[in-house]
Amino acid sequence: GRYYNWCGCGESETPPLCDKKDCIKCVQYLAALNEEVFFCNCKQTKNPPWCDGSHAKILMDAIKNRKQ
Question: Are 63 and 52 in contact (CB under 8 A)?
Fold first, then answer.
């Protein structure tokens, strides 16, 4: 029954949670159960606030670009 605000702007001092009162990119999440969840920390997710693996594509692109 606790609310969390996921930061979508990347300017929070406490990522992946938002610590800004006026952030328009935060996504509120209600933890209905006491369970472990995975919030996105790279801000590239297509399904905020959830991690969807987008960071893996970013990493693979960086590796490919480094080899060239």
Answer: no
This prediction has a pTM of 0.74
Q: What are phi and psi of 10, to 5 degrees?
A: 85, 10
φ, ψ (nearest 5 deg) of residue 34? -90, 90
**Peptide bond between residue 48 and the one before it cis (omega within 30 degrees of 0):** no
Determine the Cα–Cα distance for residues 55 and 62; give it in Å rounded to an integer: 11
Which tokens is 54 given?
């987008």
Residue 57 in 3-state DSSP?
helix
What is the full per-residue pLDDT of the chain (68 aa) written as tens digits?
899 999 999 999 999 999 998 889 999 999 999 999 999 998 999 999 999 999 998 888 889 888 76
Residue linked to tokens 């920390």? 41
